[in-house]
Amino acid sequence: MKPYIYAIGDVHGEYDLFQKLVAHYDPSIHQLVMLGDLNDRGPRTKECFLLGMKLVKETNAVYLRGNHEEYFLQFLQAPEDWYAPYVRNGGKETFESLLHPGATEEYSPTEIAMMIRSRYPELIDFLCERPLYYEWEEYLFVHAGVDLTKKDWRQTSDRDFLWIREPFHTGKNNTGKMIVFGHTITPMLHGDMQTTDLWYGDNLIGIDGGAVFGGSLHGVVFDQSGIVQDIEYQNNEGSWRG
């Protein structure tokens, strides 16, 4: 077992920030865990997806499924049903990154799905196989959270692993685990819509600094006793849009 975990929060197509954090990754000592949502909203989903897949295949990194990977896969399964909600939540940027700018104006949802399926079969198979959580020592890494009302957190529904918010953030954590999660941006958790620092709850650590909204992307190094380093890169390309 490697002595450190290196956890990266929600990337959302911010490839330049993702690259900066990956530059700190040393596969000889770090177990890399990407908390999901590498796609949507930001401009470079294709590069983020492909780098995430490469890191898993070449260095045994862990890439957890997020709700936005789920959105993408649901769209591919039923494009006419999922097109409108997916585009509202950042799917347009993903389509244009995987295909070309203007693709959403040129093609129907079914045509977009067919082209993505034909061009990226390996990526789609890879995304379908992503796990929902990762355990390491006394830590649990997950995209959104777990159902803290369950006697065993492993009985959490797939939907809650990907989507849960308020009940998880404010609930009593009796899991015996320190739970590290993304999904809900820390400016929202801090309650001021501007603080991008890590957020701490009841043995909970939120690490999604809202990079794609003009916040920051976190890479957090853990050992068995706690946080060793928090590497934070601000997104200076745009102002905070919280």
UniProtKB/TrEMBL annotation:
Residues of the Calcineurin-like phosphoesterase domain? 5-187
Q: Tell me which Gene3D superfamilies the record gives.
A: 3.60.21.10
Gene Ontology cellular component annotations, sorted alphabetically = cytoplasm
Q: Which GO terms describe its biological process?
A: RNA decapping
Q: InterPro entries in the record, alphabetically?
A: Ap4A_hydrolase, Calcineurin-like_PHP, Metallo-depent_PP-like
Q: Name one GO molecular function term.
A: phosphatase activity
| Name of the protein described by the UniProt record | Serine/threonine protein phosphatase
* Source organism of this protein record: Enterococcus durans
